[in-house]
Structure formats: C-alpha cells, structure tokens
C-alpha cells in the first residue's frame, strides 16, 4: 500500500518553462537586445552543461559566471552589461514562476500520505522555487540531484529518494510529467508511478502504459485504486 507520494518539481508542480518564456518576453520588452542570441547563450549554459549542473559538479556561482560569459559572447557585450541582463532575466523568471492551479489538491493528499519532492537541479534554486510558489510546508522531504550527486534518470537517484522516504520502494508512488526521466526509472527500482499529463508538455520520448492523470485533483482516486 503506498504511503509516500513523491513529485517531480519543474513543469509538474510549477510552471517552469512558462516562466522562462515569459521572462524572455519581459526582457525583450525592457531592453533592446538580440533575444535569440541571449536565449541561446543561456540555453547552452544550463542545458549544455546540464549533467554537470544536475550532479553538483557546477555550483550556482559557476553556472552564473559561465552564463554571463556566454551572454557577453553571444551579444558582443562587455561582461558587466551581460551580468546585468542575465540577473534581470533571472529575476523575471523568479517573479513569473507560479504553481499549477491543481497543486491545491496536495493539501488534501497531505492528510493521507507523506509527500516529497524529487527534482533535478541545484539545491538552492529548486528550494527557492518551492518557497516562492508557497509549497515548502507541504513536503516531508526534498531530494535535489546536485545535493545527492546523482540525477534522474539514473536509478541511483531513486535510491536516494527511497532513503529520504524511509519506506520500501513498493510503498512509494512517483508522480511526474516526463515518462523517461521521472517514471520509468522509478518503476525499475520497484516504485509505482503515475504520469501527470500536462497540456503544455513537450511530446514524450518513451511509451507509457501505466496510470495517468491530467490533473492533480484526480490523483487521490488513482492512489486509492493501487492501495
């Protein structure tokens, strides 16, 4: 019987990609710049070095420094101006980051299950997202890849999740929006999993034949069905 429900964070609980797109639009409306070049510079840093970032080999200070250099190169600007633009963008992302409306369902779930978060990223960044979204108090534990030095979809990440949950794998249900990264590795270590199909998700790379919901308001019924 599941006793612990563990959620992915970005684009499962909070609208991360929407905040990024909105921040770029706001930046373009605030200053004159080559927005495509700026976005590509940021993308090359955060996604081109994702494995190193997610496993804690690059901390936030190093990522910020690399992003600043990349923006300066991409825009042909000095590093002082690049740093200003990058920090402006980061601030906009923080301002625009909001939880999905159905996250309200977790307050009911928390009365019946221990809730946790399992996310790839840098600890201070991911925890700040939870705080800004007003979700911190909902979760008994938060596992962030950079803090445990291993990232999804590595099954070892889910060993860290199991340790944080303090229960056998069969008593843990993982909920996420990405089949290959969130769900299949959880199944591989004996956990259960539910696909949260967000309307704004990108096409999935893997096939999923298990339980799925389109709203967290429907999750409680699915959890009861697997008890």
Describe the structure.
This protein is of the alpha/beta class. It folds into two domains: 4-15 and 98-225, HAD superfamily/HAD-like (Rossmann fold), CATH 3.40.50.1000; 16-96. It is 49% helix and 11% strand. The chain has helices spanning 16-30, 35-46, 50-54, 60-75, 79-96, 106-109, 123-132, 145-148, 155-165, 179-188, 219-225; strands spanning 4-7, 114-119, 141-144, 172-176, 192-196, 212-213. A six-stranded parallel β-sheet has the order 3-2-1-4-5-6, sandwiched between helices. The longest helix is centred in the middle third of the chain and has 18 residues, at 79-96. It is elongated. The model has no long low-confidence stretch (mean pLDDT 95).
Short description:
This protein is α/β, with parallel strands linked by helices. It has helices at 16-30, 35-46, 50-54, 60-75, 79-96, 106-109, 123-132, 145-148, 155-165, 179-188, 219-225; strands at 4-7, 114-119, 141-144, 172-176, 192-196, 212-213. It folds into 2 domains: 4-15 and 98-225, Rossmann fold (3-Layer(aba) Sandwich); 16-96.
Derived structural class: alpha/beta
Cα-atom radius of gyration: 18 Å
Strand fraction? 5-15%
Overall 3D form: elongated
What quaternary form is this? Answer: single chain
How many domains comprise the coordinates? 2
CATH hierarchy class name of the largest domain: Alpha Beta
Largest sheet, if any? 6 strands, parallel
Mean pLDDT: 95
What is the helix fraction of residues, given as a range? 40-55%
């Amino acid at each position: 019987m599941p006793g612990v429900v563990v959620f992915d964070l970005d684009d499962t609980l909070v609208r991360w990609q929407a905040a990024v797109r909105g921040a770029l639009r706001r930046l373009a409306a605030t200053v004159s710049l080559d927005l495509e070049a700026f976005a590509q510079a940021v993308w090359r840093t955060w996604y081109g070095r994702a494995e190193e970032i997610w496993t804690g080999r690059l901390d936030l200070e190093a990522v910020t420094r690399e992003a600043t250099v990349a923006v300066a190169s991409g825009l042909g600007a000095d590093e002082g101006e690049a740093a200003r633009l990058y920090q402006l963008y980061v601030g906009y992302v923080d301002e625009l980051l909001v939880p999905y409306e159905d996250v309200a369902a977790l307050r009911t779930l928390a009365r019946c299950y221990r809730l946790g978060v399992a996310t790839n990223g840098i600890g201070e960044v991911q925890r700040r997202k939870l705080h800004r979204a007003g979700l911190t108090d909902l979760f008994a534990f938060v596992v962030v890849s950079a803090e445990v030095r291993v990232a999804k979809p590595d099954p070892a990440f889910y060993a860290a999740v199991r340790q944080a949950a303090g229960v056998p794998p069969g008593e843990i249900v993982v909920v996420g929006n990405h089949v290959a990264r969130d769900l299949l590795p959880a199944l591989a270590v004996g956990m259960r999993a539910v696909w949260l199909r967000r309307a704004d998700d990108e096409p999935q790379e893997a096939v999923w034949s298990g339980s799925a919901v389109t709203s967290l308001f429907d999750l409680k019924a699915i959890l009861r069905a697997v008890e």
